[in-house]
Amino acid sequence: MSKRKLYYLGIIIILLLAWAFYSTRVHSIPAPQYTVVEEGNGFEIREYVVYAIAETRVSASYGEALQEGFSRLAAYIDGNNSTGETIPMTRPIVVDREDAQERNILSDESDVQETYRIAFIMPEYRTLDSLPEPHDVRVMTRIVPSQPIFVKNIACIWNCLSPKKQENIIAKAEEEGVTGKNVLYARYALPWSMPFVVRNELWLLEE
């Protein structure tokens, strides 16, 4: 093998190692605390503690909404707020179709633009009163009350809120005696993570 080929091979290996290191950084990012109420084959029912979120609504296709929502919320925690402070990143990023309970449609197949809610969970020590006001009026903060959530792991980055995936988690929950229609996508993986190290979830809110 020529020196040039060895050089390029070395560059590729270094980039792959850097990509793998970046992908595993998600494990060092804190997540909200919860208690596992029940667990079985491929699912858990969790009871989360009360936590605060910053969220924004975006009317666009799923991919565009996720990108725009992430940009707005990242700016908020990076200092685009009333105190200029930086708020630590947490996981997961939570994505919801605004009217999911009524229509249960989360695909991009229609020409009609959908409205999605994208949320960052705030650090557990932050209360609503202690959070700075967003400068961007499209970003809001609120409290999420404690509630049971049916959770299923998925190896997915794109199109994770497809009707088929929703139907699968709803059917799985019904087998366990849990009913609900509002399906959320909880993304733990960092953007551009390696697909095979992705750990993401679908959350079904119990009715």
UniProtKB/TrEMBL annotation:
It holds the Pfam family SOUL. It comes from the Bacteria. InterPro entries: Reg_factor_effector_dom_sf, SOUL_heme-bd. This is Heme-binding protein. It comes from Candidatus Zambryskibacteria bacterium CG10_big_fil_rev_8_21_14_0_10_42_12.
